[in-house]
């Protein structure tokens, strides 16, 4: 079994690649979903709301929490220290549960930033030009350019991620082109 890390930058198209991988029948777990689930865990909820001013109406205001951590690297590291153990445990459980599969995918947006490469046998990066990344983020999230750049700049540059990866798909084209690239990478992974 190969555990393949899937990563990219925000608005790079990583979620689209994840959807293609799942449509092709490969098991995939999403670290972002696990991180959201972690905030529902009573102990983690207590730690996060105790560390950050993000509680509104008895719930964590995710936008407010995001604004705090994307503007302060110390706050970001503190949040990650609270959430990452939960996410890593769930990823390990997923790998163990799917040990009889040929390929499993770990969708981890901040794979390199969080130093989680050790969970993966191979890494696939979704790359996109900086201009397209910014345009997609502005359109998708309805935020201003300054905030979009803060989010993008809080992550490792895509060029660095691509240079470290075993495989790279370029998402500057259309969906059909992306599907062809993903199928080629899976074919290569299948023959490992």
Outline the structure in words.
This protein has 192 residues and is of the alpha/beta class. It has one domain (2-186): 3-Layer(aba) Sandwich (Rossmann fold). The protein is 55% helix and 15% strand. The protein has 9 helices and 7 strands, in the order βαβααββααββαααβα. The chain has helices spanning 14-23, 31-38, 42-51, 62-70, 73-97, 130-141, 145-153, 158-164, 175-190; strands spanning 2-8, 28-30, 55-56, 59-60, 103-107, 122-127, 167-170. It has a 5-stranded parallel sheet, with helices on both faces. Strands 3-4 form a two-stranded antiparallel sheet. A hairpin with a 2-residue loop joins strand 3 (55-56) and strand 4 (59-60). It is globular and about 50 Å long. The N and C termini lie close together (10 Å). The relative contact order is 0.22. The mean pLDDT is 95.
Task: Produce a short descriptive summary.
The chain has 192 residues and is an alpha/beta fold. The protein has helices spanning 14-23, 31-38, 42-51, 62-70, 73-97, 130-141, 145-153, 158-164, 175-190; strands spanning 2-8, 28-30, 55-56, 59-60, 103-107, 122-127, 167-170. The protein has a single domain (2-186), classed as Rossmann fold (3-Layer(aba) Sandwich), CATH 3.40.50.300.
């Amino acid at each position: 079994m190969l555990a393949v890390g899937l990563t990219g930058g925000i608005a790079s198209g990583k979620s689209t690649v994840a959807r293609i991988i799942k449509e092709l029948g490969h098991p995939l777990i999403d670290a972002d979903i696990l991180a959201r689930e972690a905030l529902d865990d009573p102990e983690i909820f207590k730690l996060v709301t105790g560390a950050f001013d993000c509680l509104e109406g008895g719930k964590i205001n995710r936008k407010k929490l995001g604004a705090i951590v994307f503007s302060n690297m110390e706050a970001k590291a503190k949040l990650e220290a609270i959430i990452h153990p939960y996410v890593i445990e769930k990823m390990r459980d997923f790998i163990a549960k799917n040990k009889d599969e040929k390929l499993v995918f770990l969708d981890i947006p901040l794979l390199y930033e969080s130093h989680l490469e050790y969970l993966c046998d191979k890494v696939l990066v979704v790359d996109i030009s900086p201009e397209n990344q910014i345009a997609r983020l502005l359109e998708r999230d309805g935020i201003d350019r300054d905030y979009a750049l803060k989010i993008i700049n809080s992550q490792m540059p895509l060029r660095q991620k691509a240079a470290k990866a075993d495989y790279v798909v370029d998402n500057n084209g259309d969906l059909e082109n992306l599907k062809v690239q993903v199928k080629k990478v899976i074919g290569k992974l299948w023959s490992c």
